[in-house]
């Protein structure tokens, strides 16, 4: 058998294998919680920022969740279900936003509330009150309107570049609590980067869970400090790109790739 036939045979076997995997996620859908990672909902930045969605795009995705019988929960809902056996709704998902842009308050929050949904926003605390970021008052209002608040460090630095982890992990939590926010229990790793030391620092400072940038499903067996999360960007192929990202998440979980 020549090399061309060998190559074609390998490609054919791969296509058959992947076809079987894709079929399996539809026939036997994964069980668990998908966490989605967003950043901005802003019509003014959608054409220049890959991390921005327009309000129309975000609404389309919220409608998709509702029409496909997904139900939003908070990070605390998931932890309480794992720890105390509290019941979760069918097809639970968690919608999260990183960084703390002001459009999370002006655009995202009203849209989430109008759909009767929940969301979680992870705040880089030294950006609070700066241009294009939420204020202290807005953060408090968000906590009172179904938006759970977590920490995204103080300065949005990858934790591999931080010498004193307490300055980013501990102080960001304390700063928000000292300024009147409800207790901060959850954390998002900047750029999805973490270390053994950063995980231990989270535990030492009474965080209950943290999210990564690795797509997949979360079960009660998933490491709570390495929760899987699917990034949602301003996809080149729009709504189809969004659906592909969900399918990719299911495939990665089924194949056990980067699952914690």
UniProtKB/TrEMBL annotation:
Keyword field: Hydrolase, Signal
GO cellular component, one term: extracellular region
Protein location: Secreted
A Gene Ontology BP annotation from the UniProt entry: carbohydrate metabolic process
Coiled coil stretches, renumbered: none
Domain called NodB homology: residue spans: 91-260
Enzyme Commission number(s) of this protein: 3.5.1.-
Chief location bin: secreted
Taxonomic superkingdom: Bacteria
SUPFAM superfamilies: Glycoside hydrolase/deacetylase (SSF88713)
Protein name: Poly-beta-1,6-N-acetyl-D-glucosamine N-deacetylase
Originating organism: Megamonas hypermegale
Gene that this sequence comes from: pgaB
